[in-house]
Structure formats: C-alpha cells, structure tokens
C-alpha cells in the first residue's frame, strides 16, 4: 500500500493544502493528514477545531485519515507504516526549507518525501496570510475550504 503522511499545523487548512491533498489522492492509496502539535506555537484555532475542519472536508473520501501527533514526523510515519511524506511547494523559499527537512528525514529513516507544486491559483495562499485576513475581518472564505468557520 502506498501510504503518505501530509504533515502540518493546518491553522487553518487552506485551499492550497486541499489542492495538494486532492492531487495526492491520485498518487497514493491512503493519505494521513497529520496535524502536528507544537507546545511552543500559538494557534488561532484549537486542535479539535482544526481536526473538525479537515474531517468535515474529507468525510466522503475513504482514502483520507486525519490524526494528530507530536514529535518527529518520521516517527509518526513509522508508527503508521507510511512510506512517503507529502509536501507542497509554493515558491523557491519553500523548496529550500523543505529540501533541508526532506534530506534530514531521509537520513533518519527510509521514508521518501514527495513534493507537489501548488496550483497557480493557490500558490500565494498560506495559513499565516489567512490568519491575517481573518484578524482584520477580510473575506477569508476566498482562501479556505467551506468547512473553515471563523470563531
């Protein structure tokens, strides 16, 4: 089975994330959307809200699982017998950052990282931009799936 882990904080999930996930469904038999827990990070949305946004979005997709984790992504992958880490690339800066993580993960494990370029229509979207739009009462619904609600 080709199982991939798509890790992130998803605070909140964006149309860019869903673009990568949806295209990844053609490549993998199963994708685990792994919501990382970082005690040092301040989130806009509580963990249960982020899980709910994603579960609602993919409730009719049997190839998607949503889980939370802390610690190393490669350890999570090993625990859930995932062969791949799926990551999206928006720009050259993303590539440089993700390349370093991918090399480190490969050094620590046998898990391959697969990069997908984001679609042109979503390449500018990031969770930090979405949070800024939300904080300033902008129309964030243009940037996120319809399951994301401002609380």
- How many domains is the backbone divided into? 1
How much β-strand is present in the residues? 15-25%
Report low-confidence residues grouped into runs of 5 or more: none
Named CATH architecture: 3-Layer(aba) Sandwich
Helix/strand order: EHEHEHEHEH
Number of beta-strand segments: 5
What would CATH call the homologous superfamily? HUPs
Number of helices, where a helix is a run of at least 4 consecutive DSSP H or I residues: 5
Distance between the termini: 38 Å
CATH topology: Rossmann fold
Mass-distribution shape: globular
Mean pLDDT: 94
SS-derived structural category? alpha/beta
CATH class: Alpha Beta
Name the strands of the widest sheet in spatial order. 3-2-1-4-5
Bin the helical content.
Answer: 25-40%
- The Rg value, from CA coordinates, equals 15 Å
Q: Biggest sheet: strands, sense, closure?
A: 5 strands, parallel
Pfam families: CTP_transf_like
Organism: Nonlabens agnitus
Main location: cytoplasm
Protein name: Phosphopantetheine adenylyltransferase
Descriptive overview:
This protein is an alpha/beta fold and 151 residues long. The protein has one domain (3-142): HUPs (Rossmann fold, 3-Layer(aba) Sandwich). The protein contains five helices and five strands. The protein has a five-stranded parallel beta sheet with strand order 3-2-1-4-5, with helices on both faces. The longest helix is centred in the middle third of the chain and has 17 residues, at 92-108.
